[in-house]
Task: structure prediction
Amino acid sequence: MADTKFVLASRSPRRVQLLTELGIEFEVRPADVDETPQLGEEPTEYVGRLAHDKSFAVVSPGANEVVIGADTTVDVDGVIFGQPVDENDARAMLMKLSGRSHLVHTGLCVIASASGIAITEVVTSQVTFAVLSQADLDQYLASGEWSGKAGGYAIQGLAGTFVTALEGSWSNVVGLPTEALTALLSTVNP
Result:
């Protein structure tokens, strides 16, 4: 693994931080792919497809590199909650998450370009929110933390206080399931 170059196909600061915490040296090579859900596409299919597309968009065939692509979405009753377009959209999302459970899916694709091995996996966690008051929403939205976050929240930030239960991987909800990633990396680059 010492000669292998690792590439993260994302500019997400959260993914960069989680990958750095694993002690992996890597290059950030953001992928530019269309993130529009396809007609009838399930949330798990959506994140798996985007992780795959992001990885393949930046891979250098024949190079000795391992590319890591990921995409995260919030799933409420089969409806994809991506990044809110504005504060009103974030408010609407958070109101739908209030007092109930939802799923967070992260698609993860790892490609070893030298061998051509590519594996895509989807990791799912279940998050339960407390009932959010108008004051909770107003204060959170004023923080701006919702911007650029699937479902309009960051579990590792101020919205962590909204969470009453979590089943599954915390790092998955942040945007990069490190447990699954570690397993995939050992498979494609033993």
Remarks:
- Residues 43-58 form the longest helix (16 residues).
- The beta strands are 5-8, 26-28, 65-76, 79-81, 101-112, 117-129, 163-167.
